[in-house]
Amino acid sequence: MQTPVVMGVLNVTPDSFSDGGRYTQRDAALRQAEKMLAEGAQIIDVGAESTRPGATPVTVGEELDRLLPVIEAIAGNLDVILSVDTSTAQVISAAAKAGAGLINDVRALRREGALEAAAKTGLPICLMHMQGEPDVMQVAPSYEHVVVDVIAFLQQRVEACLRAGISRERLLCDPGFGFGKSLAHNLNLLAQFDALKALELPLLVGVSRKSMLGQVLNGAPVMARQAAGLSAMLLAVERGARIVRTHDVAPTVEALMLWQAQQHYRKDEV
User: Is residue 252 a contact partner of residue 233, using CB atoms and an 8 Å limit?
Assistant: First the structure.
């Protein structure tokens, strides 16, 4: 079994929950991308609109002004797959032209024009589940059965992509830990992550520094959640995740090296 792909997070926003404001300048963002690449990231996921709980949308102009200089700098200087974390049609199109190699959309191409714009790029697309919008998504999220409901939503979005001319080979899915979900919902999804294999698509997991970890750890602050995040990541990998989105690339790569090293012995030794 191949080692999962590591996707490093690069937020170029002033208000992201864990690193807002640190990489808003082009040169700082490029240095951070270089660092993550050296640590073993194979994908750099660049986002210019915060989707933390309570975040409000930005204008298209703001998002483009933040995003494009960074994408152009990384694409022009580093040999790495660039993912763009966006939901907006104009940004999808512009980012693809600037050098992005993957579209990562927390709204699963539900914004006006996003589906059509993504189809035209020819790029791979990650469809994520989110209940509600970031500004209100954590206000009493509710499901009949969270695992079943998330799978049903993602299947619907896959079907919408197919109708728009996007082949299955271009798609991957993310259950959206922390996006419109209570702690119980998140733990349910983690415990039953293997049920997502029913989608028959590559699965991405993003649990790095999430508030669910802080809740389990009795209120641990963002920067004290790394060990729990690595544990949750490995549980998801063991249950089928093949792309890992993380703020902490080096320790994630090391954890996955150990996971990969023991694979050979799982069935051969008692």
Answer: yes
